[in-house]
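Morning. Coffee machine broken again, so started the prediction first thing and wrote up yesterday's gels while waiting. Chain of 284 residues, entered below exactly as on the submission form.
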Amino acid sequence: MTATPLPDGALGAALARFPLTPPVPARTAPPLEQRVDDLDALARRAAESGDTALAAEVHRRAALLHFDLGHPGTAYALCNLHTALFLGHRPLSVELARCALELQLTHAELLIREGLPGTAIELVQEILRAIGAGQDAAAAAAGILPLAGLTATEQDRITLYDWWDNASLQLLATALVRAGEWSKARLVLKADPVPPPGPAAARQIETITLALGGQHRIAATLLAKTPPSTPAPPGNTRSPPRSPSSAPCSPDKQTAANSPHCSTCWVTPTTPTTPPATRCSTRS
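Came back before lunch.
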């Protein structure tokens, strides 16, 4: 897919300030030695405590560091290895199923950073479809993910489906924008009343979509009415959870995640014998 170029002049300069529009400010990270030392300490804590959340964080940071060092293939392999270690113990609780899949969010994020938004879109949409259908997932980035029988109960599967749908929403919009699919990104975010991180993201994409479509006056009016920061009103959340069977996947409604991680650390992952029954993450 070819990205839609931004226009020249004042309009292009205005659109470029939005966070979903390249260029993205470079991430800052501690010196390499500090990152390694920090992760080594984290890995020791994870091994001593048997904490699943810490172990997952070790793998995530390892993948990020490999990517930062110019080894994206190794980073993707770590993400897939982490997921495979958990999937070998199906059926899982909702918490452990989330833990298994969270590094696929990181996987998709890194694909976008490498300039492969189409591959990221396929990955997150295929996982959503597979969870909803109770089937295995097949995507170019991860191969076959054995997601059939991932949870023990139908209710757990519905809960997991809604979590992935929610967690992946902003990431899918970002991937679509990187691919130049502004209209699809707009539809994805408008499908939910208050998509994370709030109404600002949907308004930003809508403004840019209108401008790139030649509706400059409407875009300018919308931009003028939008404060520099529009936080989500207290108490607002996304749509209520829905049954996978009642929400068939479509390119305009499927979603994928925004994971604004800070790159830190590296460690060689170890293979657990049994996943500890602890919550993987507090991220929603």
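Residues 230-279 have pLDDT under 50 and may be disordered. Going to sketch it on the whiteboard this afternoon.
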